[in-house]
Amino acid sequence: xxxxxxxxxxxxxxxxxxxQRQDKLEKMxxxxxxxKKGKTLDEMMAYIDENGNLSSTPPDPKKKIVFKxxxxxxxxxxxxxxEIVREGIISFLMTQKVMAL
Length: 101
Known about the structure:
Layout: H1 8-33, H2 41-44, E1 47-48, E2 54-55, H3 95-100
Antiparallel strand pairs: 1-2
């Protein structure tokens, strides 16, 4: 009498493979059932509220803040040179080095 060629390990691998296939099919069916396609444009729109957060409702026009373009500073501020005033007593002066500056 010959022994069965199917071992316990082979049976377990086959069960695992069939379970994974079944899980994959269930996930695919669930994705098809909950598909987001076919929504209208209004349902897909996202708005930004006055605090910068995403919202599904349009922002309130009463809370809208209007800025003038002249008031905005879009460039690098101009560097204003300040006159340096140094105070103190000179105890020793090397004229050779002062002339080099």
